[in-house]
From TrEMBL:
Coarse class of the protein's main subcellular location: membrane
Taxonomic classification: Bacteria, Pseudomonadati, Pseudomonadota, Gammaproteobacteria, Cellvibrionales
Function: Required for the export of heme to the periplasm for the biogenesis of c-type cytochromes.
Organism in which the protein naturally occurs: Cellvibrio zantedeschiae
Spans traversing the lipid bilayer: 26-44, 50-71, 131-157, 164-186, 198-220
Localization, UniProt: Cell inner membrane
One Pfam entry name: CcmB
Superkingdom as given in the UniProt entry: Bacteria
Family: Belongs to the CcmB/CycW/HelB family.
Protein name per UniProt: Heme exporter protein B
InterPro entries, per database record: Cyt_c_biogenesis_CcmB, Cyt_c_CcmB_bac
Length: 226
């Protein structure tokens, strides 16, 4: 019998292949992130002092919304084609497959958002000294948001239009991530230490990494088996 890690690797390989096949689902949140932030200077004007003050919050809010846009597809295709039921009856822990799917979701959404953020920070006149905090906070924060979001996606996988409901479920849990993520960037922009905010984000990610796959696996069993 194959080892449990084979389920993780097989799911990871399959979902990566599907993600690159369905590039539209992967690109849409990134396009939203880019367009939404590009509109900010057009709406508020090119005044650097104003843009610099709001840049951390704007980038983080748009990253959060872009992540929410992609959550509905996390388990949807598996539910529609019946492969989710096969995972449910597998002798291996369902949480391994969930962890693999969340990792692919972060690779397809959170990582590109993080890589794009410094460029958009330049557009919003964010100081260069804040770029490190921006990238580090987004790496931790987007990974935690993907993990937490998997619980909402699992709870609504059987619903036709679960996108709005996912937002209602996970948004309260995203607020601390948003606060500490934006605070880290703002603090770095002022030239002060931001290690406390990163420590909180790291602790949140560690907790989500342990609990979220288990919670999402339980939610999938409830949603599919009724």
């Amino acid at each position: 019998m194959a080892e449990p890690s084979s389920l993780f690797l097989a799911t990871l390989k399959r979902d990566l292949t599907l993600a690159f096949r369905n590039r539209g689902d992967m690109v849409n949140p990134l396009v939203f992130f880019l367009i939404a932030i590009t509109m900010i200077p057009l709406a508020l004007g090119p005044e650097k002092a104003v843009l610099m003050r709001i840049a951390p919050g704007i980038i983080w809010v748009m990253a959060l919304l872009a992540t929410l846009l992609s959550l509905d597809n996390l388990f949807r295709s598996d539910f529609d084609d019946g492969s989710l039921e096969q995972l449910l009856i597998s002798p291996y822990p369902l949480s391994l497959a969930v962890a693999a799917k969340v990792f692919v979701h972060w690779l397809a959404t959170g990582l590109p958002l993080t890589l794009m953020a410094p460029l958009l920070g330049v557009m919003l006149s964010l100081p260069e000294k804040a770029f490190g905090a921006l990238v580090l906070s987004l790496v931790l924060g987007t990974a935690a948001m993907s993990l937490i979001g998997s619980i909402g996606a699992a709870l609504t996988v059987g619903l036709r239009k679960g996108g709005v409901l996912i937002s209602l479920i996970v948004m309260p849990l995203y607020i601390p991530i948003l606060i500490f993520g934006a605070s880290a960037v703002q603090t770095a922009a002022l030239g002060e230490a931001y290690t406390m905010q990163l420590a909180v984000l790291g602790a949140g990610l560690a907790i989500a990494l342990v609990l979220a796959p288990l919670a999402a696996a339980g939610a999938l069993r409830v949603s599919v088996n009724g």
